[in-house]
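Troubleshooting log. The previous structure file for this entry was overwritten by mistake, so regenerating from the original sequence record. Sequence copied from the archived sheet and checked twice against the printout by T.R.
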Amino acid sequence: MTFVVAILTVAAAFCAAAYLARGSTLLGCLAFLLMACCFGHPLLSFDLGPVPLTLDRLLLLLVIAAAAVQWHRGRMAPKPLAWVDKLLFVFVVVLGVSTFSGDWRTTLPGQVLTGQVPPAVRLVLGYLMPVCVYFVARQSAIVARNTAILLWGLTLFGVYLAVTGILEVHEQWSFVFPAYIANPDLGIHFGRARGPMLMSVTFGLYLTACLAATWVLLPRLPRFWQLLVAPLTLLLAAGIYYSYTRSVWLGAALAGVVVLALLLRGNWRRIAVLGVVVAGVVVAAVKFEAILNFQREGSIVDTRQSADMRKSFAYVSWEMFLDKPIFGFGFGQFPLAKMPYLSDRSSELNLESIRHYVHHNTYFSLQTETGIVGLGLFLAILAGWGRSAWVIARRADLPPWVRGQGVLFLAVLATYACQLGGHELSYDTMDNSLVFLLAGMAVGLRQQFAPANSRGAAAATSPSDAAASLTAGAAV
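Regenerated output below.
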């Protein structure tokens, strides 16, 4: 056994060395996301410090090292910093100061899955690791072949997620992989489709991104492959439905509107978008009570209480914001700082219902923990990323594969914005890392294909020239 381990170790070392020299850092980021979802902490971890070492985190370290080595050797694609990149730097500094100016070591009360995380660990998992993914993706040489692999990877991953979610809901546990998904003591939302992420919100965010990737991929395929891949969208849509999460449903609908509006042309676009909007309004009007009170893993009463709790979160957040509007109570401090506000009897809301929970709204969470400074920076960054994606999606002179990446990010940004409004997504690295990866690609492509006469642009005079100049450094 020791001999086998030694052989595997040597082989892994050779593979790592080869990847450091010539591997695609962009596809390495994609591999990190998939490994974080399927082979993360629940499967295997080593407690070597406050942040456990897992296979996906080891891979991220390798990807960062490869980016550093290839940057030194001139194989990356240097692009000038945009204003949104500078805002991201400032945001990280604000989060760091906010975290370490308070009690950053203490494990604060909250839900079993997310609340028992010290603020410093939450900072690393929720923001610093995704920021690393963003800058690696942004500075990578982004070429058509790698984007095609990314779209295919997300499409196939979406098929896996959808099948897994359907099997979960129908309790076919012997066919579910990884096996830990069947453990009700791990994660939350057991009874819904939650996949290897063990959380229906993250499952829904990824599956919606995979569905959007499939839509973007379809126009690039030959007719035969289009006929094979198109039906998969129905499978992915079924998986989204079985998440039984309202914010996921809303996010998927918005993502669909974005894709239809940007990919279709002429009357087809008007008809499709208008049809989706009208259908959404009709469903919301006719099925509002059913959507609000539907049964999932708990009772109908539990589902209604989940909706009512968000009113309590909003009320407490506003009261806390009024007390410390500029810099907030400190990043990661909401679970403890909210306690005195729960005794407020001037409100008819059941404020005590949120005592044992972390925040359920990322916007309000940033508002209370980092004040208007932190929230303002975060919203400005999302707007800057969306602007970059919009520019490349709408430029007719760019190759279709570049415009497709802009459409993909705008669709993911739409569903991400919905999840931020209903959940706190910074307690693990999976959610933000997905969005930050696609954002890095969108900003990087805008810089990569910037007009030659733009001040500080480091791009070729035409999209074809820019792609050709980068192909040499884009080993897969």
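The CA atoms of residues 385 and 439 lie 6 Å apart. Archived copy saved in two places this time.
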